[in-house]
Recover the amino acids of this structure.
């Protein structure tokens, strides 16, 4: 029955190909012993070749030694080529400041891939079972997750790791070992499992099995399989769109097309963001939902030239054409623009996310209307030539109201404590003669409305 | 705090628009009382108009009467236009053979939509809360589900139902009612809830809160929201592809392009299948995963002219060009084909999913090779004209080996108990003179290998 279940899993998930060399990770516990024994039985059927490897982790020395001896003896009996490596895991963990579990896991996988390469194996078979899968899904669910977490462990990873036991329950594995008189060693899974996982195994799952559904593990595993299919599709779509929308992709910087992003479903945009971060930083560690939401808001924000800091020195910039993930500072200083503002017209300046409108009216009408920080009125007949909205230029000067003389724009910025990188995002309104308005900050004496004013131009700027 | 939470929900999920008329479903219990009171408070803020409607369900008559009076009084105090309807739900349930819960639910929604239409409201606000959402997700998880189940209840349905309380916990709702001295009626939720839901509420969630995570309800709700986004994208994609791949769409029949389906990710194909069934049958009730998997296998099967029965008289046919969902019987009888089989050549007959090969060889060589049901050998020099592989024709006769005379093909089919609709899928091998082989069933005397045979033609048919 266990063999049949394993065959089903192998065939449904295409875990094995003709002539595969398969290295079994053999701890000596019931799961890996069952896995080795069953795969060995299927060696001829699938035309494969089975190997085994064991890590003597030297945790609780005598017991670890006995595990290694047991593993060697089993492989000898089963006629399976056997590899063993002894490493002082407790010493390594201490040196690297890792937990015993982390260290054992890392060293075990290092050893497995080393042997895999040496013997030219295609696959590493590990012994996670149905119970492990159900626990993993529930643990992630309790901690908070999405489809990527709920799909559980994969049957098959791109690096060659396969999990042929993942539809087989622990209970059936233990029976299989009994029936075949395999006498596996004590189950060291407890060594590797977190506190929460143990509570899920020992308290929560039995509670649900008793009160709600005896099949809960199967139910969860089936759910994970359905979700994995959806997740695979979503990831593949995101990958395709990433390649379509990426404008720049170097070790330091990834730039995505901002207009394309705005037209893409948020389900995919979130995946594109994660892909960009993972590609650059190598990991998504430290990236929470709140970071992703912040970046989504950045994309939706009408302003350009925005910046967000992520953990580990990664930054996200929004510019007129791109969403840029980078480890390098980007200076917005050099974004220049220069537009003619028609009387009774408007312009939209995407570079700084502003819309500027002008309206010509009588002085009487203008006086009845409010002005404010972003709405100012000027004597229209004092204007020479075209009205221009532009970024600051070297040597710009103006005559701020109330000062009684001219002042360099640079000094005005310094007085206003506006940092260099933000100065170009403050628009300057000028005509052929000089500057009317440092928008949002200072207006000029030269264009003010006085007793001789007849026509007024009223100018409003709004963020887009 | 409850008001702030509700505002967050309304704004994040775009539940309300300027000038909306909103009808609140008011049972008189804490949830709906809190909802009505809070929305009424927000009436000016959102520039909306609040109404309330109550169903007097006449279950436990006096209490139901008191509920109705309470609801009327509350609406009077809050200055909310109030609609009430009394229906004898127990009598209705008995008549329609429904459970009390089903009947109450149906009649309540009927009443709500009736009032909604009468007053021209855009929205019906119902009072499901955070606890309800968490329970729903866990209940579905225990029963087995996919992303569509795990996304929980929607904040906003296309029919105008909205759920502004869905991020607010029951505990906060009860406090809100206390603080505002609303004295809601006994919570009738228990009346409406299933046995399993009650156990989740009273046993499982408290257990998880105590042992694992006090925030489990929030965690689950956030997970549901993330999954809803993914689900929405997947459904929208499936809808788009459905419209692309649908070849026929009537009340009786939906035909999807089989070649396109084969190139589509199974995550979407499953959704297309569900869409087709739901469109025709009006519901997915009775459709299990096993049906969907069967239809997937049908698509992958190399044979055409296949049929599957679904519940409620719906049938799925696979033909050469389409996957057909229909309530009408389709007869495959009239699929005709006629191909020349070259000596030392092969043909592929998609109509019946067969590949047929011919090989000319010496008698000596042929004798050394096995024959069987699907591999036969004939005297090549007895063949006149072209070899033809075709569907049967009216009046076909052959001289089956051992019979000593000719027989109508029709009678052979009858003897073999091959039903009429399958007869055209059995290929006939013939030459200018007559029939060599009713493939897979009978060979002819006329072409048999004898002592004078020199060259042999060996013919094999395989399913694709």
């Amino acid at each position: 029955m266990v063999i049949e279940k394993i065959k089903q899993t192998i065939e449904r998930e295409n875990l094995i190909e003709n002539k595969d060399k398969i290295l079994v990770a053999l701890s000596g516990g019931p799961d890996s012993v069952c896995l080795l024994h069953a795969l060995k039985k299927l060696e001829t059927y699938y035309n494969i070749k089975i190997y085994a490897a064991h890590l003597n982790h030297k945790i609780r020395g005598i017991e670890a030694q006995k595990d290694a001896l047991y593993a060697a003896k089993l492989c000898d009996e089963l006629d399976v080529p056997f590899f063993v490596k002894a490493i002082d895991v407790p010493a390594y963990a201490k040196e690297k400041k890792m937990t015993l579990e982390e260290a054992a896991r890392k060293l075990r996988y290092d050893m497995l891939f080393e042997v895999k390469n040496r013997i030219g194996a295609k696959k590493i078979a590990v012994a996670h079972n149905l119970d492990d899968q159900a626990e993993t899904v529930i643990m992630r669910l309790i901690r908070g997750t999405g489809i990527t977490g709920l799909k559980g462990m994969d049957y098959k990873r791109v690096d060659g790791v396969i999990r042929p036991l993942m539809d087989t329950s622990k209970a059936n594995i233990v029976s299989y070992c009994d029936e075949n008189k395999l006498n596996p060693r004590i189950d060291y899974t407890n060594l590797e499992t977190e506190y929460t996982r143990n509570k899920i195994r020992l308290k929560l799952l039995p509670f649900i099995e008793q009160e709600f559904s005896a099949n809960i593990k199967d139910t969860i595993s089936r759910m994970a399989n359905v979700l994995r299919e959806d997740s695979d599709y979503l990831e593949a779509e995101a990958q395709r769109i990433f390649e379509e929308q990426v404008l720049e992709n170097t070790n330091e910087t990834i730039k995505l097309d901002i207009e394309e992003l705005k037209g893409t479903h948020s389900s995919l945009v979130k995946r594109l963001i994660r892909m960009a971060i993972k590609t650059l930083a190598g990991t998504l560690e430290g990236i929470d939902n709140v970071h992703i939401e912040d970046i989504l808001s950045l994309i939706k924000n009408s302003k350009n030239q925005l910046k967000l800091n992520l953990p580990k020195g990664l930054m996200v910039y929004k510019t007129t054409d791109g969403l840029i993930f980078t480890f390098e500072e980007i200076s917005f200083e050099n974004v220049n623009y220069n537009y003619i503002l028609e009387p009774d017209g408007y312009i939209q300046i995407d570079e700084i996310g502003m819309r500027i409108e002008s309206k010509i009216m009588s002085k009487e009408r203008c006086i009845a209307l409010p002005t404010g920080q972003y709405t100012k009125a000027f004597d229209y007949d004092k204007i020479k030539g075209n009205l221009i909205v532009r970024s600051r230029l070297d040597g710009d000067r103006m005559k701020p109201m109330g000062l009684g003389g001219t002042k360099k724009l640079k000094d005005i910025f310094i007085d206003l404590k506006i940092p260099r990188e933000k100065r170009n995002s403050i628009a300057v309104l000028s005509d052929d003669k000089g500057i009317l308005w440092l928008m949002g900050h200072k207006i000029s004496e030269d264009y003010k409305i006085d007793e001789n004013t007849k026509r007024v131009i009223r100018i409003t700027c709004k963020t887009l």
About this structure: The CA atoms of residues 303 and 353 of chain A lie 4 Å apart. The interface with chain B takes residues 141-147, 150, 196, 199-200, 203-204, 207-208, 211-213, 216, 219-220, 222-223, 226-227, 229-230, 232-234, 236-237, 265-268, 270, 289 of chain A (CB under 8 Å).
